[in-house]
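Entry for the shared binder. Reason: the reviewer on the internal report wants the predicted structure included alongside the sequence.
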Amino acid sequence: MSERVFNSSGEQVAFGKRTGSFSTSIGIITADLVCRLPLDDFWPGVHLAPYAFSGLGAIFGGGTSQINTSFPELNQRFNNSANVKSRPLGYFGGGLEYRFTPHIGIFGEAGYNLIDHTNGRNGNNAVQANFGLRWAF
């Protein structure tokens, strides 16, 4: 299948041939342990709850998508990142939750992800920050 890419002025900026399937699957599966301490148990009326979490899992990847455009740098960058392999994952972190009601609250947390520490690799670590609305049921 051939592709032509045009910019907003109608000029052709890329022409290439795509080989193989363009679809790729990826997923994450984890097992988590969360330790939460509701401060309402000690101080009534204080609806805060600090918590810590930790877990193990895996990142699953697949697909060998390849593109072939007239831009070699783009080809190399895409083709190297499209072939994602499965990797082990570990993480830990903590956060704080405030409940407005027994079931609705807001939270903020930060975690440190340890990705693929096999065969001496250790440069894939990442920090992740999350915040939002939580509905507990």
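Summary line for the report: The helical segments are 72-82.
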